[in-house]
Amino acid sequence: MSNNTSCPNCGQIDSVQSMPAIAATGTSIAHGSNTYTGVGIGSSGTVVPIIASANTTTSQTNALAAATRPAPPPSSVTGPATCGVLLLVVALIMLACLGVAVAFNTPTAGEAGPRIGGWLVLGGIIVLPFLIPSLIAFLVLARRTSENARITRGLTAASALWETAFYCHRCGVCYWPRPVSGVPAARQPLSPYQFQQIVWNAGGYGVGR
Ligand SMILES: [Zn+2]
C-alpha cells in the first residue's frame, strides 16, 4: 500500500485537493453596493423620497465545500434574542398599562370583591399573547446557544480528522491517504456524505449520534 496522497480510486494525484484547500477555494466573498429607495417625513412634515446606498458583503460556499465542511454552520441566535426581548418589552408595557388602569379604577369599599378576578382575566388576555411567544423565543435561543456550544467543543477533534483528508475531483470521493485515529480505514473511497458523517461524529454532532 503506497503512502502517498494519490486517489485510492483512480490512483492519480492531478485532481486531488486537501480539505482545507477545498474550504479555502470554495468560499467566495463578494463585495457589492445596493441602492435602497423609500419615503420619509421631512422636517416640515412633508413626505420626501429617500435614495440611499449601503455596501454589502456576501459570503458564499460552493456545494462541495458545504458538503465537506468540518461542522454544520452555527445557528443564528440574533433572531430569537431580538424577538424574545421585543415581545417581553411589549408584555411589560401591557402589564404597566394594566397597572395604571387598576390604580385609576380603585373600587369603593362596597364593590371590592368581584372586580379583582375581572382584572386578572383582562390581564391574562392582553399580556399572555405576548408573554408566551416571548418565552418560546427564549427557549429557542437557549437551545441554539447550547447546540452552538456543543459544536464549538467538538470542533477540535473533528478538524483534526478533517484537515488530513483529501478529495478527488475526478472520482468525487473523499479519503484519508494515511491511517488516522478515529477513521475506519485509510485509502478507502468515501462519498462526501459518508466523509461528513465520520468527521461530524468525531466532533460529537453527527446525525446518527
Ligand atoms: Zn480519483
Instruction: Sketch the topology as an H/E string, one letter per element.
Output: EHEEHHHEEH
Bound compounds, each kind once, are: zinc ion
Q: Percent range for helical residues?
A: 40-55%
Distance between the termini: 32 Å
Describe the structure.
The structure is a single chain. This protein is α+β, with helices and mostly antiparallel strands. It folds into 2 domains: 1-26 and 62-70 and 163-209, no CATH class; 78-153. It contains 5 helices and 5 strands, in the order E-H-E-E-H-H-H-E-E-H. The chain has helices spanning 19-25, 63-67, 78-104, 115-162, 192-203, and strands at 16-18, 27-41, 47-61, 166-168, 173-175. Strands 1-4-5 form a 3-stranded antiparallel β-sheet. Strands 2-3 form a two-stranded antiparallel sheet. A hairpin with a 4-residue loop joins strand 4 (166-168) and strand 5 (173-175). Helix 3 (78-104) packs antiparallel against helix 4. The longest helix has 48 residues, at 115-162. It starts with 15 loop residues before the first strand and ends in a 6-residue tail after the last helix. 18% of the residues are buried. The model has no long low-confidence stretch (mean pLDDT 85). Zinc ion binds next to loops.
Topology:
Blueprint (H helix, E strand, L loop, with lengths): L15 E3 H7 L1 E15 L5 E15 L1 H5 L10 H27 L10 H48 L3 E3 L4 E3 L16 H12 L6
This protein binds zinc ion (ZN).
Zinc ion binds next to loops.
